[in-house]
Amino acid sequence: MSESVINVSELTRRFGAKTALDSVSLVLPRGAVYGLVGANGAGKTTLIKHILGLLRTESGSVRVFGLDPVTDPVGVLSRIGYLSEENDLPGWMRVDELIRYSRAFYPAWDDGYAEELRRTFDLGPATKIKNLSKGQRARAGLLIALAYRPELLVLDEPSSGLDPIVRRDILGAVLRTIAGEGRTVLFSSHLLEEVEQVADHVTMIGEGRIALSAPLDDIKATHRSLDAAFLAHVGMPVASAPDP
Description:
CATH topology of the largest domain: Rossmann fold
Strand order of the largest sheet: 5-6-7-3-8-9
Order of helices and strands: EEEHEHEHHHEHEHEEHH
Strand content: 25-35%
Helix content: 25-40%
């Protein structure tokens, strides 16, 4: 648990006059589920894009597995599974074609695990991606993100807009992924009840600043609920923001 998978130090990012991230520092050791909680526009996705190397740091530093994700994208991204709310999969492909296409990029791809996930998620191999429901597309995206057993799984609002049953399936798959394997999950959401179900550690962000970062058990021991903690430290209920 002592090894840091993600180490962000004094990261600041501006878009024009708007400060999206303001001196953010965050250390994520290996082998736990980290919930990143914030309202729409709080800075969650901007932070995740820096972790993935999609944005270059303006001030501060980002290291993933001790590497700079911008200068060494292969060394970093080959060890990360990623699923976002957009989950932009090629609609013309069938499910089995998507699996075969994706496996070519990952030497560590686990065919048996991919098939297990396909069956668990009830994805017909001959079904075209464009004919899947939103929930099924989320499951397909999660299958691709999990099948090569990445060391770090990054989920950016993966269940936004999905029904409770699909959310439960996604969260269950996350827990199975990290159970007993020493893997790390960074789970971003504006839904506090989701984070509370899966997170070992919760980081609350508001207006680009880290307001609170602590083990979930410690937060629950000092506040009557996760909602109350968010209100106390961020200054507004997370539900007051529009759904991203």
